[in-house]
Amino acid sequence: MMSKTLNDSQSRKEQDTSNKTNGVLLDVKDLHTYFFTEEGIVKAVDGVSFQINYDEILGLVGETGCGKSVTALSLLKLIRSPGEILSGQILFDGDDIVSKTEDEMLKIRGNSITMMFQDPMNSLNPVMKVGDQLAEVYLLHQMDNLKAELIKAREKNKRLKENLKRMKNELKTSSPDGAETLKNQIKAIKEQIKFRITITNMAHRESAALLDRIGLPNADTIINRYPHELSGGMRQRIMIAMGLACNSKLLICDEPTTALDVTIQAQILDMIRELKRKLKNSVLFITHSLGVIYELCDRVAVMYSGNIVEYGPVENIFKKPMHPYTKGLMGAIPRVTKASRESELQIIPGMVPNLIYPPNGCRFHPRCDHAMQICKEINPPLKLMENNVQVACHLFDEDKSNSTLFRKLTFEEKQEDVL
Amino acid sequence: MSLVKYTIRRILALIPILFGVLFMTFIMTRYIPGNPFMFAIGEHPTTSQIKAMNEMVERYGLNEPILVQLWMYVQKLFSGNWGVSLIIRRGTPVWSMILDVFPRTVEIALLSVGIATGIGIKAGISSAVNRNTRKDTFIRFFALMGVAIPVFWLGMILQFTFGYRLGLLPSTNYFDANLDPVPKITHLRLIDTLITGNLIAFWDTVLHLIMPVFCLSFIYLAGITRQTRSSMLEVLELDYVRTARAKGCKEKDVINKHAFRNALIPVVTVVGLGFAGLLGGAVLTETTFNLNAMGMLTIQAINSIEYDIINATIFIGTIILVSANLIIDLVYGIVDPRIRY
Known about the structure:
Largest interface: A-B, 29 and 21 residues
Number of helices of chain A: 17
CATH class of the largest domain in chain B: Mainly Alpha
Radius of gyration of chain B: 24 Å
Order of helices and strands of chain A: HEEEHEEHEHHHHHHHEHEHEEHHHHEEH
Oligomer: heterodimer
Number of domains of chain A: 3
Radius of gyration of chain A: 27 Å
Largest sheet of chain B: none
CATH architecture of the largest domain in chain B: Orthogonal Bundle
Number of strands of chain A: 12
Strand content of chain B: under 5%
Distance between the termini of chain B: 10 Å
CATH topology of the largest domain in chain A: Rossmann fold
Number of helices of chain B: 14
CATH class of the largest domain in chain A: Alpha Beta
CATH superfamily of the largest domain in chain B: MetI-like
Helix content of chain A: 40-55%
CATH topology of the largest domain in chain B: MetI-like fold
Number of domains of chain B: 2
Shape of chain A: elongated
Order of helices and strands of chain B: HHHHHHHHHHHHHH
Structural class of chain A: alpha/beta
């Protein structure tokens, strides 16, 4: 399925990354992204920190509206008014993205960081041919490459034209027997000669080659189709292709499988894993499906209401979730066993908090079974636990001597903060 | 291929509509009490006038049963005879009267819609992109003014200011009647004067057209701006615009390449129907500036119940409107590939 070119770029990447193995590609430090709406300030991302290493898939999981997508958009500085990145640092390969200008961001977006959106139905422009949309990425970020290709193609065209001329001269002098074969040859050459070759042609050729590489059959005809003429799975693949066009160092996938049925989901996940293995790039994978996280990711960050509450290697967190919210999420996964048929599915009581007026202290405390007085007062910071997992929860505070602070809250007390 | 079939089918479907409109206007005008001559002779006619009127009624077959008259009219129409004027310009064929005024209407409509579309789309986009800024407020203020101001009032204010007080522009008529007549090649005066190289007449026509065209385009500008703004605002929120931004497209390209074409469909409707409406005649503006184009002709015809002229103008108006609708539908297909016929 994957052809030569991918392997080429793979080896190139290997050289780049070999001296940076286990280094940090993306380092997000204390990111705050707020939206200043008329109803109030929506604290969508409130002090989020995480890292993505080279050649790693980090999963970002959480309920709808917990700030996953806003975090992803902040990485590209695509937060539009009334939103704003208030403070924090996003170090990408050592450069701070937050302080970059719009012009500098244009070179990063779609080039070294690409983003793939949920819902491929609406993420492609309905009035542009798929090929044009793909070609745009090449035209934006790989101009030098295209120019070199263009020169090559034009030279080839010129050679063909010269050949044609030569053959036509031969035709005049040749014997009647040879004339027939020569005529056929001339015809074949004429088909290859193009009247005019532009840089757009080159970009289209590259796009078709890319689609071919990611396993879409009939790539040449697909690039001349409009998005509505393709199936959901094909569209998602085209979105992925857009993300791969520039061999980005970081691929952000914002719920890429949400709108697809399970068969296509599985195919898309396989594809991402496969490409990741070959290209050795890093992926930030946003989803609300824990199953997908377990399948795909190396590490996971669990987000709740604009904060990261648990963060660490997937294996460890799935084996032994520590934060009550993570436990709740795990408990809410339906399992097909005899026991589960008889018992009811576990749920997390309550609703996701309003991000304009989030609860004081730990934002999860109104829904938490273990909520204590201190949870109402202090938002717990992430704390490194023994198995390399970081957890933000007062349950793991070492000094619990203060009995008033660590008193368990009643249901009414928990609800005081909920608006 | 299906496009051709679709167009042919639509054109065939127009035939019953056109006949329906033709019959309706014909019968409705004939049901107006009295006849054109009765209006012409006034309230207290003399006996000889009444006698003359009856003769005329007889001559033009106005005392026949309505269906017979309708049949005669349709027969005439299909032999290319649209009737003659009975009162306004007695004896002049209706067709030549329309040929006199219709090109003026076309000229005014083309200029107004052209200007309004050009500026309106630009203003609408810039208003949507700079949403809720001072620029947006400024543009919206003018757009709202265009919707709210009655065109005849605006026309009169302009006449008063530029025509009367400042004396910069001629405030009535289509051109200065004292100038030498211009040969009618295309019937569009601006083009004819240019072809014959008669720059004085050309400039004269331009001066005459400035105020009416300004009035009309101001009104249409408002509609187009508001429509462009609202549909741009809608499109700019959509996912594929975000995709384009995430690709690294410049904001200019995001707007012009990705968003604008998607926002165009409602704008096409407004522009198309506006143009069709103007071609049918801009009654108020024409009357204010005494332009004597389609709208004025229609009004004059109605005032003196000139059966044939009313029928002809309404018939032409209908043809324009239905073909504008057809063209709009075809343009949809070009703008948005999802629309298939």
